[in-house]
Amino acid sequence: MLRTTPLHEEHLRIGAKMVPFAGHSMPVHYPSGIQAEHRRVREAAGLFDVSHMGKVSIEGPGALAFVQHLTVNDVSVLEPGQAQYSAFCREDGGVLDDLLVYRLADRSFLLVVNAANHSGDVGWIRKHEGSFDVQVEDRSERTALLALQGPVAEEILAPLVKIDLGTVGPSRVVRTPISEAPAVIARTGYTGEDGFEIFLEPGDAPRIWRTLLATGEEHGLAPIGLGARDSLRLEMGYPLYGNDLDAEHSALESGLGWIVKLGKGDFLGRDALARQKEAGLSRQLAGILLEEVGFPRPGYAVLSGGEEVGVVTSGTVSPSLGAGIALAYVPVGLSTPGTSVGIRIRDRCVRGAVHPRPFFTRGSRLR
């Protein structure tokens, strides 16, 4: 039986196409379609239901030390009211999940993890709880999560809150009501656009969803499904767990080296990652931009000199650029931007080149 989010009836009411995703019934798109929804987020704003994501609370005197032990990034630099991107790793450095860490108070953290990994993550966290003086609580079913993303997101949300959103900078987190509903608002997202992620009580979520859509109508706000969420994140080169991230590839190979803080002290996977960094990588997750027409899909072979050198992990035709884009693991020697490669599409080698991420920046258009 698929689980549903608190907004399930809202999605059905406005004609969403529902699909199974990570054990949930989720909207993949609404009547306007994925391409239109993608453009709406880039040009105005979109509202996403991401309540399926896992939410785990860690509180207590040992909360900081415990989250430091679990994650690769340095949580000690966070002040209360800040968030950071991070990852869980196995002892061998393989990525178990990527996540956002929100420091709500000195001794209170909220970890937002991928829906497909939620149960496994909770078990893994509890397994390592040991002697840390903490309380671990799975709040996934008791917390709804909306994402309001796009260039005019602040204009839409501003009249519904009593604080100046201009004071809430990137990766900042505040507690403030939205239309009298208790909420936690973070200036975070998965689209590359400005925006907010909004944590609510499940019972308040349908009303706030409707209120946001009504308030945002004059600004061009529209509901957005998982299809456009995927194409938006891929244009930014953001990895997706299960496609681009997995336990068989280390955080360094996966392009997450920028969040791996080896100097912060001991954490799960640190020794293996330190050894790998010293020895050097043999493969690396890279972006590929096609120079000819083609739709790269996961599983397609990456070619160099006629030989297969890698496999596409994520791919699409970018709605913003009008060109095929992909992520793939390739030998380090081929991971430099500008390196010529190809992708085998329907028995034809479609020419492309390794491209720096993000693929899309404001104002960039290829076709």
Structural description of this entry:
- This protein is an alpha+beta fold.
- The protein has 3 domains: 8-51 and 143-235, Gyrase A, domain 2 (2-Layer Sandwich), CATH 3.30.1360; 54-141, Alpha-Beta Plaits; 282-367, Aminomethyltransferase beta-barrel domains (Elongation Factor Tu (Ef-tu), domain 3), CATH 2.40.30.
- The protein is 19% helix and 32% strand.
- The protein contains 8 helices and 19 strands.
- It has helices spanning 8-13, 34-43, 63-70, 118-127, 153-157, 205-216, 226-235, 270-279, and strands at 17-21, 24-29, 45-49, 54-59, 82-89, 95-105, 108-113, 135-138, 144-149, 173-175, 183-186, 195-200, 221-224, 283-290, 301-304, 307-317, 324-331, 340-345, 348-355.
- It has a 6-stranded mixed β-sheet with strand order 10-11-12-9-3-13, with helices on both faces. Strands 14-17-16-15-18-19 form a 6-stranded antiparallel barrel. Strands 5-6-7-4-8 form a 5-stranded antiparallel β-sheet, with helices on one face.
- Strand 11 and strand 12 (195-200) form a beta hairpin.
- Helix 2 (34-43) crosses helix 7.
- The chain is globular and about 60 Å long.
- The model has no long low-confidence stretch (mean pLDDT 97).
